Automatic annotation (TrEMBL):
All residue ranges annotated as the JmjC domain in the record: 183-334
UniProt-listed PANTHER family: HYPOXIA-INDUCIBLE FACTOR 1 ALPHA INHIBITOR-RELATED, HYPOXIA-INDUCIBLE FACTOR 1-ALPHA INHIBITOR
Protein name: JmjC domain-containing protein
Superkingdom of origin: Bacteria
UniProt xrefs under PROSITE patterns: JMJC
Amino acid sequence: MARPKDDWRRWIAENLLLGNPPEAIRDAMPRDEFTAEEAAAEVSAALASPYVQGGSRIANRLRKREWTLTVYGRLNRMRANGGTIERRERLSRDEFFEQYYFQNRPVIITGMMKAWPACTKWDFGYFRERCGDQEVEVQFGRESDENYEINGPKHKKLMRFRDYLDMVEGAGTTNDFYMTANNASRNREALDVLWQDIDPVTEYLDADSPDKGFFWLGPAGTKTPYHHDLTNNFMAQVMGRKQIKMVPLHDTAYVYNNLHCYSEVDASAVDYERFPLMRKAQVLECTLAPGELLFIPIGWWHYVEGLDATVTMSFTNFLRYNDFASDYTTYQHL
């Protein structure tokens, strides 16, 4: 079935604004829908359109901004530790904010969770004893939907916490179900008693903030696909290990951001034929172990995979400004 002509015209305009050569656009149009003369006429009409010409001026401004970001990327690669995520022991407040938070650089901080009762008490038996009968919210059916993160609200299910724990323990490796930050509102109340086992990291976080963090629990194999957050984040690993892949904010042009804060790229098996620009992206990798804090700077793309059954806390209540979401408007398709 042929695509409507207006669909093709949108496609032509988009490719012209992306800077693709007119002759390549013309030659890519299917001959069962357009003769060579018709294809040439459509491309010529688009080039002559004042709407496309106006759009080209905006596209040039965007290309200038993308060039600016590539400068930051090249400079970052020149740093001695530009290709790694540093591990630092008990960073001071000033060091953390000056060297990482304000400079939009990730870091793994060790030693800050030693006083957490959670690090010695938490296991599945403890969870059952403390709040096993509470009703919690979990995402299910993730493996049957390639857009499970975007469609997260459609996958919510309520169940007893102890029943969910039984599933996690018996699951082996799967991404089909996961208790994530998207399930936070109900679970924060249901699992409130567990927050008694967490000491606020007051060196970096505001203990008086109403934001007390998010609880993540899932089996080995859980995946959070490439996305960026609208705030700076701490990921505090309590149980199990997680593998993280991160792409800097300045490489956004390479990660195929198609909607809101999501990427089309599957970080677990990148299809470079489909996504060739990913070869230009700088990918930093680490394995986060229990007792470690990972700082994820705002705008950094990150993919997370559970190597074991895991429990993670995440926090956004930093002592410095973190309200970058208030002027964010790009929720639609890009």
